[in-house]
Amino acid sequence: xxxxxxxxxxxxxxxxxxxxxxxxxxxxxxxxxxxxxxxxxxxxxxxxxxxxxxxxxxxxxxxxxxxxxxxxxxxxxxxxxxxxxxxxxxxxxxxxxxxxxxxxxxxxxxxxxxxxxxxxxxxxxxxxxxxxxxxxxxxxxxxxxxxxxxxxxxxxxxxxxxxxxxxxxxxxxxxxxxxxxxxxxxxxxxxxxxxxxxxxxxxxxxxxxxxxxxxxxxxxxxxxxxxxxxxxxxxxxxxxxxxxxxxxxxxxxxxxxxxxx
Length: 261
Fold this sequence. Notes:
By secondary structure, the protein is an alpha+beta fold. It has two domains: about 5-120, no CATH class; about 130-260, Transferase(Phosphotransferase) domain 1 (Transferase(Phosphotransferase), domain 1). It is about 40% helix and about 25% strand. The protein has eight helices and 13 strands. It has helices at about 10-15, 20-25, 80-95, 130-140, 145-165, 200-215, 220-230, 240-260; strands at about 5, 35-40, 40-50, 55-65, 70, 80, 105-110, 115-120, 130, 170, 180, 185-190, 195. Strand 2 and strand 3 form a beta hairpin. The longest helix is centred in the C-terminal third of the chain and has 22 residues, at about 240-260.
């Protein structure tokens, strides 16, 4: 995928002087967070507001990287830009209606310093990272947000179930990679560059639920059990629920022992 422009966005980009990858690359904007320097290159994101032909503005995230690659099964020797896999995964989830940022533009080319890549997504207006929301609820008191917690658990469980039904594992399912719209309870996955297919739905499920379970700080056992019941679409605890609960607990203990060695 050398270049991609989402339907209806070419006119918006043109209005704002963004017609080629060079135009996007040369944009002067503050970094939304400090750039990531590793793998012999760098990667960073900026938030921009674009004028719309119909009036008003639209927020986007402009992500740029230079010579930021990793080896993959598609390119085991030379590797490929990490944004390439993220763009692929965004388009895949967008096609299947699984909540993720909308991919608006992608382009790449080989420069003297290595790959230069631009990836643009639509801003997730009104969303917060799950870890930030949970910390806010913890400080204000869990019980005061009981109904919101229940709605959130149901929404995230459904989102993960739909992802795993495609035999896809996010592969980095920390709370900071799940964005929540507090007013509606909608959940959305971000940072998808590591998402990969697994041989079975169960392998995808165990990979992601293990990660989320080990990093779900401040979450009670009761809410964790509610999540598993919603994920498995069960009304009560049965053999399947107990098996998954034990399996996740065993995986957590094994990784804890490895860290202690």
